[in-house]
TrEMBL record:
It is an enzyme of class 2 (transferase). It catalyses: adenosine(1518)/adenosine(1519) in 16S rRNA + 4 S-adenosyl-L-methionine = N(6)-dimethyladenosine(1518)/N(6)-dimethyladenosine(1519) in 16S rRNA + 4 S-adenosyl-L-homocysteine + 4 H(+). This is Ribosomal RNA small subunit methyltransferase A. GO terms for cellular component: cytosol. It is found in: Cytoplasm. It comes from Fibrisoma montanum.
């Protein structure tokens, strides 16, 4: 049996087993989870290196029916652990109330949406190990002042410590994608909560970057500027110049709190 790769589902199957093994071995147990969810197992190239890791209980979510049939036939150990469906539409109760790590060679066309979904459920996801388009991986891991720095970089870095692990050449996939790939790991910060209102923080970051060519004074006007925020040292800067800590500080000023000018 053979699964013909489908372009619309971002299917590029990994051929190089040593890379699959390397990715699987990046799971560290950070945050002491037992459960692991693989997004998009395809034909199970990565899955085969997850299942023998007895410290973990593995489930997979796959949208492609043909891949699901293939997995059921070729990987008997997965039988009751396959969720057929769209990760973006699932309720996160695959493991009851328990935390779980997310791993996968993500479908590149929806990798940002996957991360926004992970952000929604971040309190349940202590670790993420994934491969995605190299530029997106670099953007997520990059700091202020970099042209790639954006909403996802700030939001993910606010809650996760992120490492760019290694680059993967197109030739190791069937079919080869047009782009290079990058593997990153995200581990939940020791600080469980930001020192500001998390919803407001997200609003400020999104508003700042949605108009990234404007100064923050103009980009944040629709949210209403408090006097303290308007007087702050941030207002003549652009979002891409602010660190996560700066955004936290700015959020406290936008809330009318005593953020000061530290
Ligand atoms: C880049 S392939 C990786 C396949 C396999 N893990 C590998 O490394 O060879 C991405 C996989 O994600 C699946 N996929 C695409 N969209 C999905 C979604 N919304 N939810 C779950 N799986 C999805 C595709 O069918 C495909 O199997």
């Amino acid at each position: 049996m053979y699964v013909k790769p489908k372009k619309n589902l971002g299917q590029h199957f990994l051929k190089d087993l040593s890379i699959a093994r390397r990715i699987a071995e990046l799971l560290s147990g950070h945050g002491t989870y037992r459960n692991v969810l693989e997004i998009g197992p395809g034909t199970g190239v990565l899955t085969q290196f997850l299942l023998p890791q007895t410290a973990y209980s593995v489930k997979v979510v796959e949208i492609d029916h043909e891949s699901v049939v293939y997995l059921r036939e070729t990987v008997p150990a997965l039988q009751n652990r396959i969720i057929e469906g769209d990760f973006l539409n699932l309720k996160p109760d695959y493991f009851g109330d328990e935390p779980f790590a997310v791993i996968g060679n993500f479908p590149y066309n929806i990798s940002s949406q996957i991360f926004f979904r992970i952000l929604d459920i971040r309190d349940r996801v202590p670790e993420v190990v994934c491969m995605l388009q190299r530029e997106v991986a670099q953007r997520i891991a990059s700091g202020p002042g970099n042209k790639d720095y954006g909403i996802l970089s700030v939001l993910l870095q606010a809650w996760y410590d992120i490492r760019y692990e290694f680059t993967v050449e197109p030739e190791v996939f069937n079919p080869p994608p047009k782009v290079h790939s990058g593997v990153i790991t995200l581990r939940r910060n020791a600080v469980a909560q930001l020192a500001c209102d998390e919803r407001k923080f997200t609003q400020v970051v999104k508003a700042g970057f949605n108009q990234r060519r404007k100064t923050l004074r103009n980009a944040l006007k629709p949210l209403g500027l408090t006097e303290a925020a308007a007087d702050s040292r941030f207002m003549d800067k652009r979002a891409e110049q602010l660190s996560v800590a700066d955004f936290v500080h700015l959020t406290t000023l936008m809330e009318g709190g005593k953020g000061g000018e530290g």
